[in-house]
Write a sequence for this structure.
């Protein structure tokens, strides 16, 4: 097989695999624009025979979709900001500062990495309920804003930053806080951004926690909202999939804007190679 | 600058022997460290460490959240034995893991290898292939229900072209779980693919060139160069996929709601039902601790296995 033929085959394979992979996403968007009758017909069709962009406003009329989206941004954004900031601070201390008990405390952080979130689900729910936090923003956000994984990832990265950079700043009279803010954080932007993207996608996707803790439109997120959609309206496929499209697109856009960070973060964390 | 730096570097040295300044300096550093850690630590203690301990306590209680709890001892753990739903949830979760993890790894590795063949515009293909990973599970779960519609859904329509009479996927005893697995592999292969791609690009090309000079076959260079060099990435993806698939919930809740019967009821779904539909918090906590124990045992097993199979350079 000549290299030319081989190259063409590889490119063809790439196109084929990508097309197959994208079918469900394309379907979601196409069905979202079909008429009620077409989307609910016994024999589903691929391409809409007539386009119904008004499905967008109908979906927003049926359920408070805009509210759900704002709630999701609030929930995912709140947890992400809190987690990133507190994890960066703690990771800096674990990576750079000496204090008694450092290794055992870090050990405890590490040990909790393997605990599935379902173990803490019930106690967290009880705690939030006792504090009258059900259906409130602190109750939604705080329990998911402090995890060991963020501290662990950022500490790994901070350890890789040469000490000299920070020492130079210290010798220029910067205190620890200034060294952290002016030297370490700017150098660690890719790692911090990676953590933030991971966390944001994870929380945008989170179904279980909002499902148990939110019980009104005031805090209901898009994941939970879509479910309500199905319960109250049977399966009106075009509107349901329009709502699904609307809730998915912001995440896809965000992902495309940030995926360079994401890919770089994976490469730099040394997971791929050494 | 240099003039300023010199004394700053040397001044601590003379004061070292008179051990007094050192502890003060140390305690100052320790104080700074605790200030840095405090925001994370408070949240961690209240919302992670505390609840883990509380889960242990709650598992020893009879409690429906509303009335005051009564002591149950190990009764909640004893209830697991004769509970058929628990065992089928455990079996389903193991089935899901055993099939979906190897499939996801194979698909992500194959695609990473394909994209690593010097394809132009890799970034475009990589981004598009990562798209399922960036979608909301709940939203795409609805699309997959639609694709799986019996008789005329897209999946069965395509099977029909090949003369295959497709099953009623999501309501079939035997096919509901494979249908969930297919959707889950589609949703998650992108993550592994990116990790493998990063790993492949870090393998020094000289290794392959040396192999080519020796006349090594492509299969042998894959087995003896690519796989060992990629083993840390493989290990990472396997461990995280296993932990993730033991916690599968969203797609099963939306697509099958655990049915038909309990065919696709997963452990996490059962924990959710026990705790938040039957309000049997003690029993749900006991189940979650058993899930935790399984994850610990399996992860520990993987780490033991890793010593033999994973190749680290240093």
């Amino acid at each position: 097989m000549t290299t030319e033929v081989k190259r063409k085959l590889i490119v063809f394979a790439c196109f084929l695999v990508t097309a197959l992979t994208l079918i469900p996403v394309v379907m979601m968007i196409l069905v979202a624009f079909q008429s009620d009758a077409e989307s609910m017909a016994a024999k589903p069709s691929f391409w809409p025979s007539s386009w119904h962009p008004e499905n967008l406003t109908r979906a927003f009329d049926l359920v408070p979709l805009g509210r759900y989206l704002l709630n999701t941004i609030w929930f995912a954004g709140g947890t992400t900001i809190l987690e990133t900031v507190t994890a960066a601070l703690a990771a800096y201390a674990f990576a750079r500062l000496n204090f008694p008990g450092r290794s055992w405390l870090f050990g405890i952080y590490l040990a909790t990495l393997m605990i599935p979130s379902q173990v803490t689900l019930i106690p967290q729910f009880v705690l939030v309920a006792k504090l009258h936090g059900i259906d409130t923003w602190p109750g939604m956000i705080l329990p998911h804003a402090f995890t060991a994984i963020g501290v662990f990832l950022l500490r790994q990265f901070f350890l890789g930053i040469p000490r000299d950079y920070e020492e130079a700043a210290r010798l220029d009279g910067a205190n620890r806080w200034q060294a952290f803010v002016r030297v370490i954080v700017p150098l660690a932007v890719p790692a911090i951004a990676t953590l933030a993207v991971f966390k944001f996608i994870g929380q945008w996707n989170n179904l279980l926690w909002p499902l148990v803790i939110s019980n009104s439109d005031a805090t209901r997120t898009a994941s939970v909202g879509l479910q309500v959609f199905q319960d109250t309206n049977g399966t009106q496929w075009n509107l349901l999939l329009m709502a699904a499209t609307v809730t998915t697109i912001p995440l896809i856009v965000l992902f495309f804007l940030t995926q360079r960070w994401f890919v770089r973060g994976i490469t730099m964390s040394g997971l791929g190679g050494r | 600058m240099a003039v300023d730096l010199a004394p700053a570097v040397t001044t601590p040295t003379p004061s070292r022997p008179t051990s007094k300044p050192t502890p003060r300096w140390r305690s100052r550093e320790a104080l700074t460290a605790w200030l840095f850690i405090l925001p994370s630590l408070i949240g961690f203690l209240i919302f992670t460490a505390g609840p883990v301990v509380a889960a242990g306590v709650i598992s020893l209680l009879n409690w429906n959240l509303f009335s005051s709890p009564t002591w149950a001892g190990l009764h909640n753990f004893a209830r697991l034995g004769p509970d058929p739903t628990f065992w089928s949830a455990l079996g389903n979760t193991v089935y899901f893991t055993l099939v979906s993890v190897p499939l996801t790894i194979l698909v992500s590795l194959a695609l990473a290898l394909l994209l690593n063949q010097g394809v132009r515009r890799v970034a475009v293909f990589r981004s598009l292939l990562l798209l399922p990973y960036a979608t909301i599970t709940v939203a795409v779960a609805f699309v997959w229900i639609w694709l799986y519609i019996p008789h005329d859904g897209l999946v069965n329509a395509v099977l029909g072209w090949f003369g295959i009479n497709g099953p009623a996927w999501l309501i079939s005893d035997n096919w509901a779980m494979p249908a969930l697995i297919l959707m889950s592999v589609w949703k998650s292969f992108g993550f592994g693919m990116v990790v493998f791609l990063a790993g492949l690009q870090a393998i020094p090309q000289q290794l392959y060139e040396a192999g080519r000079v020796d006349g090594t076959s492509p299969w042998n260079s894959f087995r003896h160069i690519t796989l060992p060099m990629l083993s840390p990435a493989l290990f990472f993806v396997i461990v995280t996929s296993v932990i993730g698939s033991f916690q599968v919930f969203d797609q099963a809740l939306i697509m099958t709601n655990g049915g038909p019967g309990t065919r696709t009821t997963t452990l996490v779904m059962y924990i959710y039902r026990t705790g938040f539909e039957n309000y049997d918090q003690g029993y749900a906590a006991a189940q979650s601790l058993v899930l935790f124990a399984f994850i610990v045992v399996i992860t520990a097993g993987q780490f033991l296995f890793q010593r033999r199979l994973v190749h680290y350079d240093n």
